[in-house]
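Subject: for your reference before the review

Hello V.,

The reviewers asked for a structural picture of the protein, and I figured it would be easier to keep everything in one thread rather than splitting it across files. Below is the amino acid sequence we used in the manuscript, unchanged from the supplementary table.
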Amino acid sequence: MSMLKELEKQGVKIPAQIKDLLVNAPKVHYFNTTDELVDASVGGAGNSSFEVKYDVPGKGEYTEAVVHRVSNGISANYTESYMRRRDPGTMLIADDKPSDKKKFKDVYGYEFEDLRKDTFEWLKGQELAVFMYYAGNYPVGIGGIAIAPANAGFFALGLAFLQKILPMNDLPKGFRLDSAIYVAPPFRHTHFEGKQRVIHNRLDDIHELFSYNLYPGPSAKKGLYGVLITRGEAEGWVTAHCSTVQATNPYDNTTTFMHEGASGGGKSEMLQMVPREPDGQVLIGRNTISGEERHINIPLFCTFAPVTDDMALCHPSYQKGNGKLTVADAENAWFIRVDGVHSYGDDPVLEKLTLNPPEPVLFLNIDTNPNGTAMIWNHIEDEPGKKCPNPRVILPRHIVNNAVNKNVTVDIRSFGVRTPPSSLESPNYGIFGLFHILPPALAWLWRLVSPRGHANPSIVGTDKMSSEGVGSYWPFATGKRVAQANLLLEQIISTPRVRYTIAPNQHIGVWKVDFKPQLLMREYLTRRGNAKFVQDQYQAARCPLLGYELNYLTLEGNKIPSRFLKVYKQPEVGVEGYDKGAEMLYDFFKQELQQYLQPELLPLGRKIIEACLEGASVERYNELLPMEYKYAFLKKNK
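And here is what came back from the structure prediction:
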């Protein structure tokens, strides 16, 4: 009760259902720092190993995760391989507010209020871990309270890193409980057939988030991302799904990139160095049929400073009215996937930071021993001989080298797409060149369809192309699809000085390229600075959905072979193979765009979508929203 009195003394209004929980639970542990949660993760200061387990009715005692204290932090591993990746179908909506998402009642046939009461009753029977957090970037964002079973300390630690734990005796002036996250892992088994579920309940006074699993991806991270998106939809602003980086060329000119895309689209990778081969060269790609490799020499890379890893606030208070978009990080820590680090030396910067961090960090899906050292290349196996594709580390952003701690203004918004190998014999949509220039109208369309793409390592699913929808953050949004599409279009119209590009990762035709396209794009465009492309350097792409393709590209004296710029130049693909891939892209766009043709859609948005459905040329898209600053005077309702 003393802590409740302290909170009320600071003017924090505590909803009745939360006060009831905290008063009636057998014991409540209040936390003020992540250091306290490090010890809680392993059941106490003297422990080095801990099992997170629950008595599940009808199943008996069930262990969800095994947690180790390691020299560089906390390492948690789930007992089920399914729990090591985010299930994209986790979200349900419990309330009756406007939403295009599935409703809990429609899926399960009864009102969520029944389960809500059962969840609260279960929590009242547990020792609880409780802390205050702030989702966003104070003062833009949402305050909240986390309530979890005390033995789920590692989950609470991840949440406290990501959303910034706040000391309860020193909360910011005016702090409000606008959100709450309740964690009840056994319900995954008793009510949801073992599946991850996250339920949003948007009450008038508080946004409740019920997490029925212990993987932080769909709840502590994407769930609270959804809370931010909900606030933005009500107030008319966007929290973009992107990484942001400021790159500085060897001549001290800085270009700011904002890289968007669906899960696996290269957001975190945009903050990494271009990997070199042992002899210092850069491997552009390897031909998957012939085994041929192509290398280039880059004596000096651009330096860079990371700004955001996955989420960026595009709040109206940040905007400068200069025709560009200004953003700030929406997270307090970064949830970094390290599947690309296979051995020592693959990512020296990240390896150094995680092997000897200035404070403990949280590792997920990394094979460790108690009191040992977690090494980010030592991925746990899902089954013998098969590594988990989604090893992670949660890094507090304040320990990340050169992280920018202020708002930044964006010069280039790029978009990443995971692409499969594509050939005449096996055509697919991997027909992107190294990168393409997009008219703003096409940039908007790509954000509406946001393909999840090939071989996604982060989520449970198939290799087929599927859509993550508006801005690629639609899987986490709770409201209306068209409302978000309108916000994105208004944002693009109001920032006419921003340039747009799109880059593939994994494959360019039959060439395996990993994330090199976006990294080489970063190197090239940073060297160019504000210089415009000369007219003969680009032309309308053979597939108009890809905007403008490059005719030539030279980077530090290295001429990039045309096969990496125009996939139909590859003999294994040719025009016929390319056109079959283009047809697949068109089919995907036609399938996904129909749902946006609602009465609420802005008239300009309707024109752009209808143009696409009619097979518009690149020039037509550029007429609708030109790639010129003068279109700042265009009216969105035109």
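For the response letter, the relevant points are probably these. The mean pLDDT is 95. The domain at 239-314+411-624 is CATH 3.90.228.20 (Phosphoenolpyruvate Carboxykinase; domain 3).

Happy to draft the paragraph if you're swamped.

O.
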